Amino acid sequence: MINLSGVSKRFGTKLLYENVSIALKPGEKIGLVGANGSGKSTLLNMVSGKITPDSGDVMLTRGFRIGFLEQEFESPGDKTVIEEVKGTFLKHEKVIQDLNEQMANTPDQQSLQQLMRKYEDVEHAFETRGGYDLEATCRKVLGGLGFSDEMMRRNCSQFSGGQKMRIALAKLLVEHLDCILLDEPTNHLDLPAIMWFEEYLKSYTGLIIMISHDRSLLNNVSNRIVEITGQQIYTYEGNYDYYIEEKAKRLELIQKAAKLEQKERMKIERFIERFRYKNTKASLVQSRVKQLEKRETTEIPLEEHFIDFKFPQPDRSGYEVVKLENITKSFGRTVVLEGFSGTFLRGEKIAVTGRNGTGKSTLLKIITGELEPDSGTVKKGMRVTIGYFSQFYAEQLDPNNTIMEEMDKLRGTKSPTDVRKILGRFFFSGDEVFKKIGVLSGGEKSRVLMAKLFLSDANMLILDEPTNHLDIGTQRVLLDALDDFTGTICFVSHDRHFINSIATRLIYFDTNLIDEYPGTLDEYLQSRQPDSLEPKYASVKVTNERKERKRQEAEERNQRFSIRKQYDDAIERIEEELESLMREENELTQKLADTSLYKNPDNARQVNERYQQVRDRIEILTSEWEKNSLEREKFL
């Protein structure tokens, strides 16, 4: 058990908590929430003993064992993955072996008895912590976090930072600790690993205290939410959704109480003011003054402020926004995409999710043109403008540029004042716009990329892990902005709440398999057999009535398809002619800009006439294209 009593803590001049107390009990699964900078990680550091409070006490039950997964973790040593995860158990095994040898070589009975008692204590502790099942436990945990048998035998130094984070997490989970402290544990986990990890935490019998921006994880695991706000701690006995509801009720009650308090104070003040100068009322006035001084003021919590923006509604693109056919891409000997085909339609919000290392980010980069496929074709539709958000900030942000210089790349005709107004919506104001990109935090860099997207006027947004480094409140603002966006969105994410909230279609990347599903992530996961890649279909007895209904539906579909095909053919012919005319328009524009053309007036006149003819024809075809596109949508 952990008790915090009268704890206060400052960092520099900033007060994080003042005189807070809370008891944290075994079996509780606590979600620790609060705005960025409110002191969540500091609280975990105090509980772990890494830092001490300025005043007050942090008390632990005697022998209470705590493990801590930090965001900035100690990198695994120069061992194989399986050896690293076994960690302290190997030391215990060595102690047991040494004691066995000592007992075998100790003839003195009294010394032998002492060694045997020590052996029993060490062996009991080893068994209690699951030491004799260690190999199986390690493999189960590592497998759940995405490590194959071959990966478990590799040296830790061969893995990326995200994979090393998984190794550190696995090491923590096999320890059988009384309490685990988790600071953003899902940051480097893919969807299958997150779902396995969630089930593991549900079955964990010790105390869990975790900071997470994963709303689904907080909902499915937490049985208590602890919020840090206004230098105080508030607790809610339920999951994250319960916390949102109860917090709203609490704030409403506080606001009502504050209004009543204000009303009563004004009533007393009016009495004092009215009778202040009347001697006959002096004692009553004095009584009211004392009453006013003693009254406690109801503090209304300050509202949290989040970025506030909506994407500008974009120009209308063609119905088919991007079409990919037989896309293949390899890196060295590793084939990442093989024969992938897909069409992205105007207005769709497509989630790309699944296992890490299966080609999700590669697909996005091929769509944007950042990468060329080894084979296959990528065709962009009419009037498609792409805005790209990369999870790897270095790909899009120059660390030597200021925020303002990054925005200038896309400023176009907007004035510096307009750009500064946009940056203000993303919490960059005053001289902050002249900060270098290299000194910004991950969350600040995310906000810069969002501001650049806002400035791009794109009608197709390509987003790679857009919620990384964003707190839940900011994620909610982003969700609302994307939900209102009328263009096309394709995004990679492992955040289940985020995916379920906006995705109209799903592309799921698994080992040697890419699944497409016309629905939400929850629906897709329910459609899969446990431990199988094959979708499950319930066997249903089809009645004659249902057969007839299906026949009619099929007939209607065929009719709609036939009409759509006519419009598709017309649109394709228009687009081909438009592309040809736009190339000619560009050539004619260059000729008209060449001053030597005007040395021959007849030639100049002919070029100008042809230019006008081309412009007129483009205008007519564009109108026809829009009309056909709108009519086509009636038969979807």
Automatic annotation (TrEMBL):
Organism superkingdom: Bacteria
Transmembrane residue ranges: none
Keyword Protease in annotation: no
PANTHER family: ABC TRANSPORTER ATP-BINDING SUBUNIT, DRUG RESISTANCE ABC TRANSPORTER,ATP-BINDING PROTEIN
Keywords: ATP-binding, Coiled coil, Nucleotide-binding, Repeat
Protein name in the entry: ABC transporter ATP-binding protein
Annotated organism of origin: Candidatus Auribacter fodinae
Entries under SUPFAM superfamilies matching the protein: P-loop containing nucleoside triphosphate hydrolases
